[in-house]
């Protein structure tokens, strides 16, 4: 056994588990079912390591329904819309994605059982055969070497993914190859790895390719490897957050952090300990805020790009047991991780054609990026690299709990502010929701990939209970401002500039992309059951404007709309039988509208939103738009103190300061600079 295999065995050693007990896929809606859930060790999800194993096999079996012999590629039905391929030239890369990304799921299963068979196909033999097609010029799956002056491409991404799996299970997919095949594969992969990249998490794809082949004794560009390592570390900000040029989201957290800790374990500690030490120090910090992005029940919110990777978001958590420090609550992290897996695998819309859709639950075109194909979704398979941890690892053996949530008080709200990323995560004990406010400052005209300026990032906030809804062409807007612009089109804010987080209030300025005269100072104040918005309009021209609450999807029964008075305020309330949303115009709004929409929500065809409306007139004096956006479970009554929490408002300092007196005795001062 080589030193590398000894190191991997020490870290990744796993007990050989029987594959006789598998997750059954015979229920009517084809969702994943737990076989013998264990509520003693996992009181909130019933999930054990065996169930994670079953979940991985469930996904891999779906992919293998397209494989009848070794020559069949991992190519799945294209989802209509912007996803690729749109021409035959992209098909080899599409096949490469399907191959390398499903291998993330297959690799840990093959590590346990090298003779794994699915659909009468020997899985290890299949991947070895397909890898050899990548270097066979006569094969339709052949990957052409990067041209001498060629730039970064999707092939680089997938080869980086393949390098990770080669590190994980070399005895199954690397060592059995002939020396000629190894040399040809090295030449193909290094043509991309030893080359340019994108200044984002992509540098890790070069890093893994260069690292694997250096570890195998090949001559590699070590100067470039160190350059990309050093540059990757410069993306780190604070509290576990890396900047992904320029965004912060689930992916910027879990991709950087997982890649850093995996590289450290399989390669960095041996060859570059100084870089490994820095990646591990950053890895420990993710515990500071990241777990709070998940709801009380452990589910994740719909936020940021690459939403279709879903449960990939939890992939760093299992490795916190070894690298997170003594204060890490692994029971909480496993509860979050298991619940997020079930959140999707048990949703009836998750699978179509036996493979996951491009979307959040079901297919949802507004979330899809143009760099994605149907096989892209298996990037989520990184969550199952956790199966490389042995059965007696504390991540599997500790009892699930609800972490910090169990100590929260229902009548309070808990904010977690990360200073360098300038983002705010909020936990709401009463509803169990998590929420985030973070970077967005991308112009549509500069957004060549058409996702950083969209609803993926431009909402005022994102909530785990209320997935974001796409904007409508008639001004229907959810959790954002919309203005009727000079082209007579409704346009939302997307150019935000963070100012400060002070006294429980999150301050931003915003300007309309197509008209810099339209601008506002925005202040979000999370309350125990919602948000108080204290926004100052400093627009000096006439403009029609709207503000939207979150949206509610329609389920079994039509959404109802009611009003309720409390003192001088009146709430408009919508109810879908699961949740209620209430909106109260405190100051500066003319009217509220309940709008029924179709085809805009990720969970249902029909949905409803509440929009506040106003016709702003040009003025040298700033106008205030104060509103309450509240929520609670359906069936619970609204109390007057919830609809009317504000006792009085006091403007001072030439309307630059607003003192809010609440009925519960709290006092908050909003101070505009």
Automatic annotation (TrEMBL):
Q: InterPro entries in the record, alphabetically?
A: DUF2264_N, UCP014753
Keywords (alphabetical) are: Signal
Q: Where is the signal peptide?
A: 1-23
Pfam families from the UniProt entry: DUF2264
Specify the DUF2264 domain's residue ranges: 48-401
Database matches in PANTHER family: LINALOOL DEHYDRATASE_ISOMERASE DOMAIN-CONTAINING PROTEIN
Q: What name has this protein been given in UniProt?
A: DUF2264 domain-containing protein
Q: Which organism is it from?
A: Carboxylicivirga linearis
List the top taxonomic levels of the source. Answer: Bacteria, Pseudomonadati, Bacteroidota, Bacteroidia, Marinilabiliales
